[in-house]
Structure formats: C-alpha cells, structure tokens
Amino acid sequence: MQICLLDRESFLDWLGGKPSPKPVRLTAAKMRQALENDIALIYDDQKTIISTQPVLAIPQHKISDFYAFVGTYVAGYRPFSAYFKVVPFEMLSEMMKFRSYDPEMGLQKECLIGVAIAEVYTQSRARIEAIDKISVSAVQATLSASLTEAVWQGYGSEKVGDISRRWQIVRELEDASELFLDPQKITEVWEIISEVVAEKISSKSRGPRRKIAQALKRAVLIGPPDQEWLFPFLKEFPRLAQNVAGLSRSREERVRIVRDILPELVDSSSNLLTREFLAGAIISMIGNGSFAQLSLLDDVLPKLPSAALWFGVVSSLQNGSDALTVGNCLGRRVVRDMCTSANLFVPIREDIAVEELRMFRSEKKSTATFRTVQTASMTVNLLGNVSGRFKTVGATNNDATRAKQDAKFRKNDEQTQELMYLLDRARHMAGMLSRSGQRDLFDKD
User: Are 370 and 79 in contact (CB under 8 A)?
Assistant: First the structure.
C-alpha cells in the first residue's frame, strides 16, 4: 500500500492529469491520526501507482465537506463517489487488517443470505408459497443484505451498528415508508452474528445477548445444532425443558413438539430477545434448516418480530439449509451480485456514497440530480465495500404521476370517443333532414 498526500489545490491538479506526488511512509500511530486539510491517495501497489485508480482517504468528520468541495469545483465527475472510492482515513489501518472469511468455520457465510430472505418475509408478511415470487431486488434492498456484506468483510459489531445507522439515514432521505420490523431489532441480530463469525464475543455483550452468542458459537464449533446447545435456556422455559429431547426425533414429532413449545415462548414474560431467538431456532431445527418450515412463524411474528431472522441464522448452521436454492435459487442469485472481498481496491459498483447523497438531497429534495443504473432505484455506498439498494426519492411520486397521466389519457380517450359518436349522430341526422328537404321540392306539385 502506497500513500500520497495532497492539499486541495494539488488534488485538483491531479484530477486534471498531473502525476501523483511521491508516496510517503506513515507509521501505525500516524495512520490513526486524522489529517488536517490533506487528501490521501491510497494505491494498492507501488508498481502500479501510475496505472491504477487509488482509494481516497479523508478524515471522517471532513468527508461531507469534501463532497461539497468537489461538488463545487469538479464538474466532470458527478456524483464524485460514483467514480472514486472515499473512505475514512481513521479506518485505514482497520480496513487493511480485514481478513477474508475463514472457510474452515462451520458457519456457511453464503447461507447467511437466508436472514435477508427472512427479513423480506417478515416485512411483507408474505406466505411461504410466495417466496418464489420475492424479487432479487427486494432481498438486496434489506438491511440484512447490507449487514451480510459487512460481516463477510470482517466488520465488528460496533461498525455493524454504524453501517445500520447509515442505512437508516438513506431511507429517511428517500422518504421511505415505516417498516414492520424495526431496524434496531435487525441490527441487534447482526451484531451478535458478527461476534460469532469473528470468534470474539464482546465484553459489552451481557445477559441474554451474551448467552445467545455463546450458544451460536457452540453450535458453530460442534456442527449442526442439536438439543444440547439449548440447555442454557431450559431453566427459564419449563415446557421447552420437558420437550427438548424430542427435537431429535422424526420430523412429524418435531412439528408437534414445536407447536407445543411456541405458546410458552409467545406468552412468557422472559426476555424478548431470548424468546425470539428460541422460536426461530427450534422451528429451523424441524426441517434441518429448510425454509419450508418458515410459515410456522406466521402466528408468532406479531409478538416475536425478529424470530424469522433467527430462523435464517440457525438454518445457515444446518446441512439441510436451502437458503441459497429456495425460491428458484433466490439466495444464490443475490449472493452473486454481492461484494465478498475485503479488498478496498475492488472496482466501484455504487451510484453514490451516503455522505454525498445527503448533499444532493439538501440541494433538491424532489428528484435525484445524478444518474443511476436503475431509473427507480439506486445503490448507495455505506462504508468501505458495503452497499445498500434503495428506491429513489422520486420513484413513488413518479409512479403516482404516471398513474394520474394514464387515467387522464383514458378519460380523454373516452371523451374523444363520445364526441366522435355525437358527431356521427349529428351527421346522420343532418343527412336525413337534407334528404327530406330534397323530397319536399318535388312533392309540392
């Protein structure tokens, strides 16, 4: 990694075609310090410093100001973040240490996309028969899809929360409708997942949250979940304790037992997060991770809203998980388009970064003033290589406008047809009167 430091004037010269200055060496301590007014160009390799496009590093608190600067003085790149990747300078050291997912772990990272599918199921309350009708874009637009990328790339629970806040900022900027499942509940699930994947449970995780993380970690280490990893929760739920052994019997028996346990989880006064986790976990164990059992959660979601997410989590631990193939390979299709690399230098694929989007929206709230790949949606860079997909701010209004225009055209067409009919009637009557008048000329004799 090579770092070149420029002030704003030199940066504009560089954009104009002048060569980069000589790279500088920064110590680990210096890397953690915020720059003053400099812009850092980060190159992947010194040998390719001339031919490759660098990542731009800016102090976190100055990134918004930087986008205002390039928006004023750089007319050739709009939006700027669609062409240059901008990251917080303070996070460079951390990002460079990100490791790729360890394939030796028992948790299949691709199957975690099932959590995003479960989120769509929960938010839309779609029936299991309709999973094959869930669109790829609907899964990509979930918070879970963005946090899946974050966890794959090595972000810890703290950054998972930060990415979630950025995702919510974009939704607010785009006037999105209220969600059935609160983003905070989704974030809580993914913060725990990130600790399990990183094999490091935070000291801040206490009580039920820590117990769930430890249970999942145990399940990852010993293989597909069995009744033993539920033992820490048995004291709180007597009916679960009485029936836990039955979760290893035939599928028909497991369905009966789970139906007997669920009322206790729904009506108990115990911790909500624990009850949501257990509901999703035991239903996932019925079919060894098969999404065919997801509909069993329909009756409990109103009181245990994140249970379906935990179903998706625990299903990813099991050999029978069909998270990738359910709905005509819905999960596999979404994974194909997701960035699985922790390398900062992968090509840009987003339409805009969240900080620059805020600047655009403050200028003009009604419509997007930049180009996107899709006319009714955009892909926003949230942090590093983590992105989210959103409807554009004018999408709903445009749809309504088109509907009104179509209705107006139909009404005008109906009025035109009615007018033509009246004209035809008038011509017919005029013709009859004319013929009658001609006859009168001959009848007078």
Answer: yes
